[in-house]
Amino acid sequence: MSDSIGETAESVVKATTSQFVEEKFDVIRVPYVKDKEQIDRVLEEAAANNAVICYTIVSPELREHMADRALAKDVEVVDVLGPMLKSIEKTTGLLPRNQAGLIHSLDHDYFKRVEAVEFAVKYDDGKNPLGLLKADIVIIGVSRTSKTPLSMYLAHKRIKVANVPLVPELAPPEELFKVPPYKIIGLLIDPFKLNEIRAERLKTMGLSDTAVYADMNRINEELTYAKGIMRRLHCQIINVSNRAIEETAGIILEYVRKNKERHSEN
């Protein structure tokens, strides 16, 4: 029995009954227990069928009722959460929230995070333009402006991010111009800073830092092109020259929060 879905109690029961291999047990889950009448009905049935009740009930009032009525009806019951709640309360001095189903809200957050990370990987670096219309945020910018690290960082905040590299020789995907401007973030960077980053990148790859990739003329050409695309999109622009990933992500998160409030009002 549980005042939530009852998975925890059922897992305890199955783990326990697995130790009695010579006997087969019927396990019945009774979820969403909300009142004393439900408890009384299940206790009547348990008494009639020689059953044991394992329960995870967070309401102190319902736990107390269960214990009292079970004793009166001579039904064996096992309180899974009660002793643990009391021990932690005694040790820490903290009071439990006594709210059913909290573990499942945590699970929900976890799966949302996993979903967002998988989304970021799938739609990284313009791999699939169809993802742009599904994204919460689309990040655009020239190479080495931290588009991918930002996408992953934001994914761990449960935000679905797609990113698109801006290269003069490649026209941006048509889908990019169908994304609402408030969902697009353009990243710009100081050309000299970008030159340093790209030159270092070339060195780590065992290539000469005089390659076109790190050439100042090429960098200025790319940035001019990127600025033109961002103007066409009327998107939010962030200069990442001297910003850590966390700082840029903080700006984007605040921007997302304000946009959610604005559009929920509309």
Description:
It is a single chain. This protein is of the alpha/beta class. It has 2 domains: 94 residues, no CATH class; 162 residues, Rossmann fold, CATH 3.40.50. It contains 9 helices and 6 strands; from the N terminus they run H-H-E-H-E-H-H-E-H-E-E-H-H-E-H. A 4-stranded parallel beta sheet has the order 4-3-5-6, with helices on both faces. Strands 1-2 form a two-stranded parallel sheet. Helix 2 runs parallel beside helix 3 and helix 7 packs across helix 8. It is elongated, with a radius of gyration of 29 Å. The mean pLDDT is 90.
Task: List the uncertain runs.
Answer: none
Shape: elongated
Computed Rg: 29 Å
Structural class: alpha/beta
CATH architectural grouping of the largest domain: 3-Layer(aba) Sandwich
Architecture blueprint of SSEs:
Blueprint: H1 7-17, H2 36-48, E1 53-55, H3 60-73, E2 77-79, H4 82-92, H5 102-122, E3 137-141, H6 147-155, E4 161-165, E5 184-188, H7 191-204, H8 216-233, E6 236-239, H9 245-265
Parallel strand pairs: 1-2, 3-4, 3-5, 5-6
Quick summary of this structure?
The chain has 266 residues and is of the alpha/beta class.
Notable features of this structure?
two-stranded parallel sheet, 6 strands, 4-stranded parallel β-sheet, alpha/beta, about 270 residues, Rossmann fold, elongated, 9 helices
